[in-house]
């Protein structure tokens, strides 16, 4: 299966049954993103999403120095951002399209049917927050260094952090402080506001914990985990009434599955259930 997921700047492996591991692989540049990377990231997650052999996904960065240092600013300045135009309207329209495309690539992680666990380690700046906030579970290490770095390069973050972070932590004062100052903060502070759900001694320990969580998720009904992710994300962006209504419509179809019967029967028989591929 690994041979089917060969993409530049990424390693994709399958460390446990139904678990995929996506590793950002540009460690010599602190896993900083160039355009081909976010295009490949999108392709990988759009392929993993319907893959019946995948039920949960881990996302990490190669090496010990960084999950990702963010956008490769030098490469960006030589690309779309650095192209001169005599017409401000046309330049603005080109940038708008470019930003939307970049946003969509990160949103493809959020839209992936399978739960995604991000392990943030080392330098986790800028795009690291955009990307991890599109994931479902975030883990950190004691030495992780976070920063919403964009104001330090003269712009407002535009790939997802400013939209997702306030909903992820529920503390608008803290969100505005770290976004307006670009100050660096660590794993313990990230956990204290709910940005991450666990902090571990080093990358290896955090990845092992992510694999444990991913394996537990992969052992559940894929119908149930897909539905749970879908309903949580929908309800985050809608009223309680809308969430309840969508849940009723969703489950009107999705409870009509053999998985419910198998799960109930296994509980009565005190055995581990086995679920068919989705």
From TrEMBL:
Task: Indicate the principal place this protein occupies in or around the cell.
Answer: other
- Its recorded name reads Delta-delta-dienoyl-CoA isomeras-like protein
Looking up InterPro entries in the UniProt record yields: ClpP/crotonase-like_dom_sf, Ech1-like, Enoyl-CoA_hydra/iso, Enoyl-CoA_hydra_C
- GO BP term, example: fatty acid beta-oxidation
Which one Pfam family would you cite for this protein?
Answer: ECH_1
Indicate whether Thylakoid appears among the record's keywords: no
User: What is the organism of origin for this protein?
Assistant: Trematosphaeria pertusa
Keywords per UniProt? Acetylation, Fatty acid metabolism, Isomerase, Lipid metabolism, Peroxisome, Virulence
Compartment(s) of residence? Peroxisome
An example Gene Ontology cellular component term from the record? peroxisome
What are the GO MF terms of this UniProt record? Answer: delta(3,5)-delta(2,4)-dienoyl-CoA isomerase activity
Q: In which pathway does it act?
A: Mycotoxin biosynthesis; Lipid metabolism; fatty acid beta-oxidation
The record's annotation in Gene3D superfamilies points to:
2-enoyl-CoA Hydratase, Chain A, domain 1, Lyase 2-enoyl-coa Hydratase, Chain A, domain 2
The lineage, from the top, is: Eukaryota, Fungi, Dikarya, Ascomycota, Pezizomycotina
Family, per the entry?
A: Belongs to the enoyl-CoA hydratase/isomerase family.
């Amino acid at each position: 299966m690994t041979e089917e997921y060969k993409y530049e700047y990424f390693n994709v492996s399958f460390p446990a049954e139904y678990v995929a591991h996506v590793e950002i692989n540009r460690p010599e540049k602190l896993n900083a993103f160039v355009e081909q990377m976010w295009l490949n990231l999108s392709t990988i997650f759009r392929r993993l999403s319907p893959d019946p052999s995948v039920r949960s996904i881990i996302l990490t960065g190669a090496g010990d120095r960084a999950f990702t240092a963010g956008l490769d600013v030098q490469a960006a300045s030589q690309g779309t951002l650095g192209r001169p135009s005599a017409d401000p309207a046309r330049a603005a329209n080109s940038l708008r399209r470019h930003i939307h495309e970049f946003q969509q690539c990160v949103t493809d992680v959020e839209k992936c049917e399978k739960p995604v666990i991000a392990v943030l380690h080392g330098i986790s700046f800028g795009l690291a927050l955009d990307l991890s906030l599109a994931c479902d579970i975030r883990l950190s290490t004691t030495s992780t260094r976070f920063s919403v770095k964009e104001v330090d390069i003269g712009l407002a973050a535009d790939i997802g952090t400013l939209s997702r972070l306030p909903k992820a932590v529920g503390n608008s004062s803290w969100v505005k402080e770290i976004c307006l100052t670009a100050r660096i903060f660590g794993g313990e502070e990230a956990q204290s506001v709910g940005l991450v759900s666990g902090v571990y001694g080093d990358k290896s320990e955090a990845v092992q914990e992510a694999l444990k969580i991913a394996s537990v998720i992969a052992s559940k009904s894929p119908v149930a985990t897909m539905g749970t992710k879908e309903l949580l994300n929908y309800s985050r962006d809608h009223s309680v009434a809308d969430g309840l209504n969508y849940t009723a419509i969703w489950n009107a179809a999705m409870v009509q599955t053999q998985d419910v019967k198998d799960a109930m029967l296994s509980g009565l028989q005190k055995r581990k259930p086995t679920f068919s591929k989705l």
